[in-house]
Structure formats: C-alpha cells, structure tokens
Write a structure and sequence with these properties.
The protein has a seven-stranded mixed beta sheet with strand order 3-2-1-4-5-7-6. The protein has one domain: Rossmann fold. It is built from five helices and seven strands. It has 183 residues and is an alpha/beta fold. A hairpin with a 2-residue loop joins strand 6 and strand 7. The mean pLDDT is 90. 39% of the residues are buried. The protein starts with 25 loop residues before the first helix and ends with a strand.
Length: 183
C-alpha cells in the first residue's frame, strides 16, 4: 500500500497484518480521489474508521488543509503515527483514538468539507454515521461524504432524509458511494 499522488506520492504505508483491517487498494483509491479531486485543495476533512490512515494521508498529500483521523482500534495508533511521520504530514493531522460515535459528538460545532469513512462492512455504521453527521450539522453546504462499503450492501443506498447519493461505483466486492446534503 502506498500514497498514490501529491507531496507524499510513492511512499509506502504500513498496516496491521491479518484481516482486522481492509486496506483500500490503489485502484479503489485512484477511483475515489478522481471523483473528489476538485474538492480536496484547502479542504477541512474528517476520516472516520481511519485504519492505517491511508485515505486521510492521501487527502493531506493532495493538498487538504487538515484531516482529523478517528480510529477506535488502539493497535493502529503506532501504525498511523508511523505513516504520518514517514509522509511528513503530521503538521496538519489530528488523530483521535476513540469510538467513532463519541468522536462525532465531540466534533459538534465543527464543519467539514469532506468526510470519508471506511467502516467494518455490514454493521450499519454508514447509515448511523450519516444520521449523526446530519443531526450535528458537521458537513459544509457544498461538502461531500465518501463511503467505502461492500458492493452488495443495499442498506448503504437506502433513503436518507438528509443526504442523497451522487454516485456509486463498484470495484469487485468494494463499493464507493459519494453523498451530498439534500438541497
């Protein structure tokens, strides 16, 4: 796994061994960032279920103003720290090791341009996070939410009272959906 573009392009990133995390493949990362590239420069971002930090690091590498990383698995603390140090992107990173829902509640009053999330599949986290993001008004009016999910998870595309799906793409077993606030 590596950073695919920007100031840290080509730098190898570490992850946990085993199946506890699902690192986003380069192919999927390229697809995600081609969908949102025009929104990244200067963006204030939130990376939920950060894992190794690769998606948030990609945002910073491509010119995001700041990224708040949120990860509940304490085993990933040294991995995210190593990856941020290796890419020299620590200055604009805030890393929170806590439950995602507790962290979202703590973000009340903050606004984000991009929110990216890659939760465990089939746990219902995406609809719950979307509802909480709306309730706490965390997304700027022109902001986007990018989700990675199992391509067979129909619950992701179910109607949401606050956000609409702009685009969904499938890459084998991986699905990517981009949401925006309902106008």
């Amino acid at each position: 796994m590596r950073v695919i573009a920007g100031s840290a392009r080509g730098i190898k990133l570490e992850t946990l061994d085993g199946l506890d995390t699902r690192p986003t493949t380069d192919r999927v990362k390229e697809a995600v960032f081609s969908m949102i590239h025009a929104k990244i420069g200067g963006a204030i971002c939130l990376d939920l279920f950060s894992g190794s930090g690769s998606l948030g690091i990609e945002l910073l590498s491509r010119g995001a103003k700041s990224v708040t990383f949120v990860e509940g698995n304490l085993q990933l603390k040294p991995i995210i720290a190593l990856n941020l140090n290796r890419t020299k992107l620590t200055e604009n990173a805030i890393v929170l090791f806590q439950d995602v829902y507790k962290s979202l509640n703590a973000q009340k009053g903050h606004k984000f341009d991009l929110i990216i999330m890659d939760p465990p599949y089939f746990n219902g986290d995406i609809p719950k996070c979307l509802d909480l993001i709306a309730k706490l008004d965390l997304l700027n009016d022109n902001g986007l939410i990018i989700t990675e999910h199992d391509s067979q998870d129909a619950a992701i595309l179910s109607n949401n009272a606050y956000f609409e799906s702009l685009k969904t793409k499938k890459y084998g077993k991986i699905g990517i959906t981009v949401f925006r606030r309902l106008l």
